[in-house]
Amino acid sequence: MEENKLATREKLKTYFEKGKYPTQSQFSDLVDSLRHKADILTNDEMVALANNLASIENGFISYNLSGNIKDQEFPIVISSKDREDQVITLGRRDNYPEEKRYFFGNRPYTIQAKEFSAEGLEENEYYVMSSYIPSQYPIARMFGNNLPAIPDGFKFGTLAGDAKNFQMQINKQEFGQKISVINTSIKLVNKTKESIQYRVSTINWSDDYTTEDMVTSHYDLWDDLSIFYRADLGNIAQSIECRVYDEDNGNLLTTGYLYAGQNNQDVYTGGQVLKIRNVRIECDYITFED
Questions:
Q1: What is the pTM for the complete model shown?
Q2: How many CA atoms lie within 13 A of 201 on its CB side?
Q3: Which pLDDT belongs to residue 29?
Q4: Hey, where are the domains in the chain?
Q5: b/e per residue 37-48 (b: at least 16 CB within 10 A)
Q6: Is the dihedral of CA 274, 276, 279, 284 positive or negative?
Q7: CA distances for 64 relative to 59, 159, 199, 290, angstroms
Q8: Dist. CA 133–CA 131, nearest whole Å
């Protein structure tokens, strides 16, 4: 009688090639040795897998959902040149509000929203979202109830170079009152030959750096804007002064300086733009006197 020993896959292939068949016991043992996609990993297996993931060079998202977010889902789309678009759905799993998901393909990855859920809110509750990509600055928005949704195609940024980790946090909060969007128009007048970028930030609303004119969509509960600048003047002999004006009446609001011989990064103007609807930023060379 043939002994019922567990045969290897290669051995079983030879059975079929020769017109033979594995015994029922051999076939059962082989099936048991395979992993089904519905199988749940043991804790030891998950630890071993996590240790192996440490060597993966692919980008990933690490995210946190807090504030009693339960059944809501927030899908994002990852685009890379060598793979089809990948959709990752951010959701809270049991008692694990923090999660990590890896991206297919290679950098650069363009990361966009795909119609975030705005359900599961009581009156005066809102979702507060912030995202961060290395080499960029946080993008923050609120959504839900009367506030605009995060639209399909909303761009969080591009993960490129050595950057691997895209971070996102979504928190459900109760503010005790209705919050509305207000707008401030910002115009940049760059009278220099240098590349000068600025960004605008306030509580729960911020954008990355730009050289273009823009219109904010911040919130009436925090109608005070902070403006930051960056410009690489490492090979430039003249410093630059950036003045912020109220476009409606010409009043000077704040002044910031970008210094010659330096790579100026995230330079704060030292003041806030409070309840102003139209702003003009003028940047020009200055000469300091001894």
A1: 0.81
A2: 17
A3: 65
A4: 9-50, 58-174, 181-286
A5: eeeeeeeeeeee
A6: negative
A7: 17, 19, 25, 52
A8: 7
